[in-house]
Design a protein that fits this description.
219 residues; Arc Repressor Mutant, subunit A; alpha/beta; 2 domains; 9 strands; globular; 8 helices; homodimer; DNA-binding
DNA sequence: GTGACTTTGTGATATAGTTAACAAAAAAAC
DNA sequence: GTTTTTTTGTTAACTATATCACAAAGTCAC
């Protein structure tokens, strides 16, 4: 089902969900058309960058007019596989994990946390925000059973690698790592690190050492 | 007190806290020396990139030997202002906010969440993880009183801009925004966006459309 | 002390990402 | 229907980042 696409730059790919969300907002406000300049104001991305990003997918706009919101939205829905649901597992139901469960992402969205895991017996067997929590012992068994190949890792740092090894065993494809550990995985598995302590520290570094001018946001 | 430094690339600056943390680990393991190759293995950053990063600060290593862990650690401690504490406010004590409060960053770290704000009367007046929670009405008053100029924003998206306007009033300098909203701020204020829904969505997009090869991590 | 080995620091190069600027096309005004 | 205005799509230039590859300077073994 994955449509073959000319490879777009990663920086562009990272902005697509953002565009999609704001187009949704515009749509529900009843807007029919939007220019790259307007969109730029909303998402805080240079308008030339937006036009460039869109152009990787062909000529989506019309000169002198802008972009048709509905058309663009439909196009991105397909491109971002918004009709196909990706099931995600959450490993580690601590404070951060619980935040994710309560948040859950299925709003205008194509991802859903289907299952959670923890070692805490008081959590095992319960549900948080509709998501059932299982014991970590059942990790492999349940992931295979449910056919889940994406995991969010929110466990304590010291056990991060051990659990990662189990996830590899369970044939996971992608791992969104919120622990401070840098994980060892085979090259076939994609890992993104989101390191909140590093984010805060480097942010403070920027504040002290760089004159701020609203540039260089994360995401 | 801010030492005047030749401007280093932002990409390098973002990696510094990471290096610092792993050097700390090595130090507490009793390691005396480390090569860029070893460090590369640990932090998953190319060894040439590490050497280049370090070289912006001068010749910190020794050929044929590597880097002295203690020396490097001391150097980065100064560079990252680890002796100077930056006080941070947390705005919005929901699930994610609570996760931050319980996490708190002051481990080997130069940042501390000093104060929290929420509108929920059951939370106001309590403390979470040692951090007192005040009502949002006291935002400006308390921030000015405590001399806090960095805030973490974990409020619901619809009120993000309103509260941001209050933070601007309170003369904030930096804002780490965890809401999906793209905030309007004057150019003198630095904003970093960390958009968890976008992270997850773009991650899933990468998984489907790009052959994974362990590259291009988010910090 | 000598030769083999290690590892840095950095020029050169490659790769990626952003932005200015503008012709071309269409829309809007009249 | 003509002119003015708007706005795209893209070429070209620029800026940033990552990586290769290697001389230079040391360490290490004996």
């Amino acid at each position: 089902m994955a449509q073959e696409q000319i490879r777009i730059p990663q920086a562009t790919a990272r902005r697509l969900p953002l565009y999609y969300r704001f187009l949704n907002n515009l749509h529900s406000q009843g807007k029919q058309r939007v220019s790259s300049a307007e969109l730029s104001e909303a998402v805080k991305v240079d308008s030339a960058t937006i036009r460039r990003d869109f152009s990787y997918f062909g000529a989506l706009g019309k000169k002198g007019y802008g972009y048709n919101v509905n058309y663009l939205l439909g196009f991105f829905r397909k491109t971002l596989d918004q009709d196909e649901l990706t099931k995600v597992a959450l490993i580690g139901v601590g404070n951060l994990g619980t935040a994710f469960l309560n948040y859950n992402f299925l709003k205008n969205n194509n991802t859903k946390i289907e299952i959670g895991f923890d070692v805490d017996e008081t959590k095992v067997g319960t549900s948080i925000g509709d998501v059932p929590i299982y014991h970590m012992d059942q990790l492999k068994e349940k992931l295979v059973e449910e056919g889940i190949s994406v995991a969010i890792l929110t466990v304590p740092a010291p056990v991060a690698q051990i659990i990662t090894d189990q996830l590899i065993e369970a044939d996971i494809k992608g791992l969104l790592n919120f622990t401070p550990a840098r994980l060892n995985v085979p090259p076939s598995i994609r890992v993104h690190h989101i390191d909140l302590a590093v984010e805060l520290q480097s942010f403070v570094y920027f504040l002290k050492h760089y004159p701020s001018n609203e540039k260089e946001d994360t995401i």
